[in-house]
Design goal:
about 350 residues; binds ligand PBG
């Protein structure tokens, strides 16, 4: 039966009715708060392209986690800005690495907080790539032209070496687990890293430490502000040879499937808002807890538009998070975690 018997507006007449029939709810428990840890003490340095997001020294990070946890947010994810970078990402797996120190401090000073450790090498590598870099002699084009073409090789080609990088990622994961990190979250997109990390964790006695895999992580322009926040922009080239092509959703399902086979306990889609279809497809197909990462560029766009008074900041913030949940994410990594939790209180 159609109109006038059916009137969908009946259930939209006031907020109480709307709340009664609401299909998706946002709760602070579903939010994970990313933090950028830097050396020093008493440091709270705002990221230029992410107003309201800071590089925090360990002591300041502890305060931030305590305040956020009190608002009902259960978990934080840590990124590190090391003192020094090199070609083997020493800062990522060093016993006294910046994230290791932060994790120890947070776990000893804040009760009942789940600390996730982002596992990647880009913040700790002098070249800013997520794995070990090997230079190649010449580009494929230069080779196929042959010496007769007499043109100098256009650029030095390079490769992000997959298998050798796994060892460093595994070493980083074990080191983070030792420092008290509760959940290991690899974001590098090397093939086989979940398996390598699982094996290494088990061997070191961390068989109960879960892995949240950034399983479907796309090579995205939306990471721009993060690379400023974490000082992790690649010094040459880009990440297209390891992160996913934004055009591919079927391949995303394969990535997730393989990570589950390798032992992932939770999976992630990243970025979130431009990839809601990927989140929905993953939700439909897999039964693991599913995370989505509302990335730096998504945050920066909302902030920039709000600053121009082109959008209502709070409204858009909450709508963006609600819609990521509606698409199927069980949890959302978001720079808005603390503020959204305040609004939800
Ligand atoms: C590390 C990493 C990145 C992000 C999370 N982990 C950057 C990248 O891959 O370049 C992006 C997060 C964001 O943009 O908020 N590899």
């Amino acid at each position: 039966m159609a109109f006038p018997a059916n009137r969908l507006r009946r259930l939209r007449r006031n907020e109480t009715l709307r709340t009664l029939v609401r299909e998706t709810r946002l709760t602070p428990e579903a939010l994970v708060y990313p933090l950028f840890i830097c050396p020093g003490t008493g440091i709270r340095k705002e990221v230029r392209s992410m107003p309201g997001v800071f590089n925090l020294s360990v002591d300041e990070a502890v305060k931030e986690v305590r305040a956020t946890r009190a608002l009902g947010v259960l978990s934080v994810i840590l990124f590190g800005l090391p003192e020094k970078k090199d070609e083997v990402a020493t800062g990522a797996w060093a016993e006294d690495g910046i994230v290791q120190r932060a994790a120890r401090a947070i776990k000893s000073e804040v009760r009942d907080v789940v600390v996730m450790g982002d596992v990647c090498l880009c913040e700790y590598m002098s070249h800013g790539h997520c794995g070990i870099v090997k230079a190649e002699a010449q580009s494929f084009e230069a080779q196929s032209l042959g010496a007769a073409a007499a043109a100098p090789p256009a650029t030095t080609e390079y490769e992000i070496v997959n298998d050798a990088s796994l060892e460093l990622l595994a070493r980083t994961s074990v080191s983070l687990a030792r420092s008290g990190v509760d959940i290991i979250a690899p974001s590098d997109m090397m093939d086989g890293r979940v398996g390598a990390i699982r094996t290494a964790l088990d061997k070191a006695g961390f068989e109960n430490t879960p892995i949240l895999s950034y399983a479907a992580k796309f090579s995205s322009g939306f990471y721009g502000p993060f690379r400023e926040a974490a000082d992790s922009a690649p010094q040459f080239g880009d990440r297209r040879s390891y992160q996913m092509d934004p055009a591919n959703v079927r391949e995303a399902m394969r990535e997730i499937e393989l990570d589950i086979e390798e032992g992932a306990d939770m999976i992630m889609v990243k970025p979130a808002m431009p990839y809601l279809d990927v989140i929905a497809a993953a939700r439909e197909r897999f039964d693991l807890p599913l995370a989505a990462y509302q990335v730096s560029g998504e945050y920066a766009m909302i902030e920039a538009a709000a600053r121009n008074q082109w959008i209502d900041r709070e409204r858009v913030m909450m709508e963006s998070l609600l819609c990521i949940r509606r698409a199927g994410a069980s949890m959302i990594l978001t720079y808005y975690a603390k503020e959204a939790a305040k609004l939800l209180a």
